[in-house]
Amino acid sequence: MNKQASQEREASSANGFIYVIAGPVTALVAIFLVLSRPSPVLGLVFGIGMLIAAWCLAGLYMLQPNQAALLTLFGSYRGTDRGDGLRWANPFYVKKKISVRARNFNSEKLKVNDKRGNPIEIAAAIVWKIDDTAQATFDVDNYEAYVLTQAESAVRHLAMSYAYDNLDEEEAGGVHEHTLRSSTDEVAAALREELGARFAQAGIVVVDAKLTHLAYAPEIAGTMLRRQQAEAVIAARKKIVQGAVGMVELALTGLAERGLISLDDERKAAMVSNLLVVLCSDHDATPVVNTGTLYN
Fold first, then answer.
1. Which end of the chain is more exposed for a tag (fewer CB within 10 A), N or C?
2. Region 277-288: what's the mean pLDDT?
C-alpha cells in the first residue's frame, strides 16, 4: 500500500509584534506589583507573569519575503507559515525555515546518444522553485539533490527521444520531424513537461527549462560537419538547376513568340545545353564563336 503524499497546509501563527509588546508589558506589570506590595500571593502572580512573558518572547521568529517556516510538534507536522516579517507560534513548535524563491542551475554537459544513435553533448538551464513545502521536506530525503539527479535523468531521456538534426533531404512521408537543433520551442516544452512530472513528487514546479549546449561529440563532429556542408552544396545546386531550367524555358518561349528565329529540335537541344552550362557553371562562361552550322 502506497503512503499518501504529504500536503502543505496553513499553520496556526500570528503577527509577532503583538507578542513582542505583550511579553515585556506583562513582565513589567508583574515586577511593579511585587515591588509595590510584596506578599506571597503577589510572588505567585510575579512568577506567572514572568512565565507568560517568556512564553510570548520564546515563540517569536522572523521570515524574509518568499521564505516559509515548517512547524512541527514532537515530529508531527502542524502546518507551514508563509507570512513574512516578525511572526509568533507555539514556542514548543520546531520551526524549520525553507526558501520558496526561484532557483536555477546549469546541468553538466552530458554525453549521450540521440534517437539515431549519434553521440552528442547536451546541457540545460533549469529554473525551479518549491511549491509544496511539506512534500519537499517530508517526501524526499534531500530535495536539492533530488532535483539535480532527476534533471540529469530528464535531459538524458530527452536527448534519446529526439534526433540531433534531420539529415535526410526528404522527410519520410512528408511529416515534419522535430529535432533537437531545429525545434527548440518544442524540445524546451517537452523538457519542461518531463521535469514537471519528475519534480511533482517533491512538490517542486518548473519555472523554465531550455537547452544551453548542443553539439555532436568530438569523435564524430568533423564527419557530421562535412556531411552538413555536402548537403548544403547539394541543396544550393538543386536551387540553381531549378532556376536555370526556368530561365531556359523562358528564353525559348520568348524567341518562339517573337518569331526572331526558327529552331528545330536539334538546335533547341544545343541551345538548352549551352544555356544550362552557362547558368549552372561555377566559373565565368567562355564564349565560343561558331562559324559553321550544326550540320557541317
1. N
2. 60
Q: How much of the chain exceeds pLDDT 70, in percent?
A: 72
In a domain, 21, yes or no: yes
Both 18 and 44 in a single domain? Answer: yes
Cα separation, 56 vs 97, in Å, equals 20
What gap in Å lies between CA 130 and CA 148, rounded to an integer?
Answer: 14
Residue 5 lies in a domain: no
Cell of 171: 522527410
How much is the average pLDDT of 272-283? 63
* Domain range enclosing 134: 103-216
Give the integer Cα–Cα distance in Å for 119 and 146: 26
Question: Looking at per-residue confidence, does 256 or 23 come out higher?
Answer: 23
| pLDDT over threshold 80, residue 191 | yes
Task: For residues 212 and 153, state if they share a domain.
Answer: yes
**Cβ-count burial of 199 within 10 angstroms (0-12 exposed, 13-18 middle, 19+ buried)?**
buried
Q: Are residues 134 and 209 in the same domain?
A: yes
Cell readout for 183 is 525545434
Mean pLDDT score across all residues of the chain:
81
